[in-house]
Write a structure and sequence with these properties.
The chain is built from 15 helices and 13 strands. The strands form 2 sheets. It has a 7-stranded mixed sheet, with helices on one face. Strands 9-10-8-11-12-13 form a 6-stranded mixed sheet, with helices on both faces. Helix 4 runs antiparallel to helix 5, helix 6 packs antiparallel against helix 7 and helix 6 packs antiparallel against helix 14. The two termini are 16 Å apart.
Length: 457
Amino acid sequence: MYNPGDTIAAIATAIVPQQGGIGIVRLSGPQSLPIAQRLFYAAGKQAWESHRILYGYVRHPQSQALVDEALLLLMLAPRSYTQEDVVEFHCHGGIMPVQQVLQLCLEQGARLAQPGEFTLRAFLNGRLDLTQAESVSDLVGAQSPQAAQQALAGLQGKLALPIRQVRAICLDILAEIEARIDFEEDLPPLDEAGIQTQLTQVLQTVTAVLATADRGELLRTGLKVAIVGQPNVGKSSLLNAWSRTDRAIVTDLPGTTRDVVESQLVVGGIPIQVLDTAGIRETTDTVEQIGVERSQRVAQQADLVLLTLDAQRGWTAAEQAIYEQVKQRPLILVINKVDLEPNLDLAIPQEITAIVKAAAAQNQGIAELEQAILAKVQQGDLQARNLDFAINQRQQAILTKAKLALEQVQATIQAQLPLDFWTIDLRTAIQALGEITGESVTESVLDRIFSRFCIGK
């Protein structure tokens, strides 16, 4: 746990051999500046002042051997990310320069930072609340522009604002109730109708924030979409046209795809993992059979299934068999090869309503497919509310607890139970709301949250 006397150090940029122009070693804590002064030689007469960038060299403090030509960024407390003295060595990229500089910092008294410890210090020192700290992690891991914007909204405090507002209302209600318990004879009667109105407004806000959970999860983790169908119906061509690459091998021979081929896309701001599966059919080929079994497992685990058929062949018993395996999943029927004299009598089951016509080999129908996918998302009410922030799973669980507690307060009031009973669930709600922003949170919760961060952030 945080010790204000410690100075921590870590590499704050990705380390990739022979790639990356710059590598950053970051320090935070009371010894940051003294360590930098022992390791960094600033050319000329540059002033060691806060929020200045110095040019010079990193040298070994004993041998004076040159380690790297670098820039040094000084950010002294409290005007820094952690509100402590922060120093950054901006070295040449790659592996060796940053590792050598980090090792020198450790030899001079710093210790290696734990995952997320810089952001943890920013939280503990009051620069960030817990929702903002979690948004830092979301921003680093964002897979689409929309996910990044959502994380930035959280970082700017847009999620914490409504949570703090409803918590303040709950605290005011609790104070009113406890005052009546302690000084009932000296105060006017409690306005029960007004409290009921306030609780209704609080619950409406909590419910609205809870409704962002699915949208947030969608933007953070994306959709897993499986392309399934018989061999040679154009599944691989569909993947290649959609991803604008040649990820999958395309031939006229059925059964070419023997394993699951994956591609990463972004559709309407939503990350999508597209899985081209082996053609599903009865086969005696051992390798192909393994591929078919994997395809069936992928289809069962997918968020959305694209059942693809050949427009010339139409809906056959084979399609019906595949459909029976996947019809419990959200599904879009892709009628491919519509450019090759399609069979007009496809005999498609009436319950399939989401249908897209395509000619994947000609790059036709991709836009329509993406629109159909987004329509599926909207039907699930995952993006129906135009909110610019979204809660994560931890926040959803805690907010659900708060919602249940507030509903219980309403039930207690309606049952005309004594005021002492009102306060029990009200305190539970206040405690839960405080856990979201970090106003009431345990050390074990902090450890669990920040352990998911990368080292150096």
